[in-house]
Give the backbone structure.
Amino acid sequence: MLTFPNAKLNLGLYITERRPDGFHNLESVFLPLPWTDALEILPAEAGHATSITLTGRPIPGDPATNLCVRAYELLQADFPQLPPVQIYLHKIVPIGAGLGGGSADAAFALKATNDLFGLALSPETLESYARRLGADCAFFIRNKPVLAVERGDVFQDLDLNLSGTGCVVVYPNLHISTPEAFAGIKPQPPKHALRAALAQPLATWRDTVSNDFEGSLAPKYPVLAEIKQQLYAAGAAYASLSGSGSAVYGLWAAGESAPVQWPAEYSVWRGVL
């Protein structure tokens, strides 16, 4: 079972309050981005335990605790008939970039297992498993634009069509951990209601849609503001940090961006949404 877990973009991101459980409530629109990893799950050879082979971008940590392995083991605990599997993950989407790549891998592992072994689990049930793996994992089960609230795992339908919109995503080879990003956050309500702001023309978003993490991360990492300014100079109608960083993206209503020569160590995705 071969699948291609895709990244996501955050359109606006507001950290609205700290929760009693130590997490934060947020408000953001999650948008699928067709920048993908490659994930394959196959039954393991006879006598072999579940294992994972990792290629592409290095993934820190013990492979045995990779989110894809954890996703499979989560289902196997409730469906003991599931056999050991061999998981192959080729990592392309940058890590620590605010693009949700690891969460996508976990969610697609759940979906692939469901399809491969005919478990017939509903999207609602798969989302409940995904929430146990990470706050934004559940988004990738249905994988459509949504307004995300609470911890980022409660979704509201959203009428948003950005088809044909040009997009450039720039990752400056800078890993920002989630704890580091949240360390500089002071929760507060957004100045503009996100759903209403995104209903306006793309050209207006620059003044009404923002990412709370930029306020603390951009002074610490000036390259983030530099990339954002370069995207605007190249004609982007809107540019922003995605998630808790460090990828910065620009959107073009006409679908085309002016060429920019980015440093060789950067990873850049260009395409149409």
